[in-house]
Amino acid sequence: MHDGDVTLANRPGGGALAELTLPAG
User: Fold this and answer.
1) How far is Cα 25 from Cα 7, in angstroms, rounded to an integer?
2) Domain extents for the chain?
3) 11-24 pLDDT per residue, tens
4) How confident is the model at residue 25 (pLDDT cuts 50, 70, 90)?
5) CA-CA distance, 6 to 17, in Å (whole number)?
6) Torsion of CA 9, 23, 5, 2, to 10 degrees
7) What is the SS3 assignment for 1-25?
8) Rounded to an integer, what is the distance from CA 1 to the centroid of its chain?
9) Burial label, 17 (beta-carbon count in 10 A; 0-12, 13-18, 19+)
């Protein structure tokens, strides 16, 4: 899931940027 790149700091793998870096959803 990608709530937005802002959520990257809040939830690991929950941001749009984390989606590219982390295989987590």
Assistant:
1) 12
2) 1-25
3) 555 555 556 665 55
4) very low
5) 9
6) -120
7) CCCCHHHHCCCCCCCHHHHHHCCCC
8) 7
9) middle
Quickly count: other Cβ atoms within 10 Å of residue 18's Cβ: 21
CB 15 within 8 A of CB 1: no
Q: With a threshold of 0.70, does the pTM exceed it?
A: no
pLDDT in the model for residue 13? 53
CA–CA separation, 16 and 13 (whole Å)? 8
> What are the C-alpha distances in Å from 4 to residues 16, 23, 24?
5, 15, 14
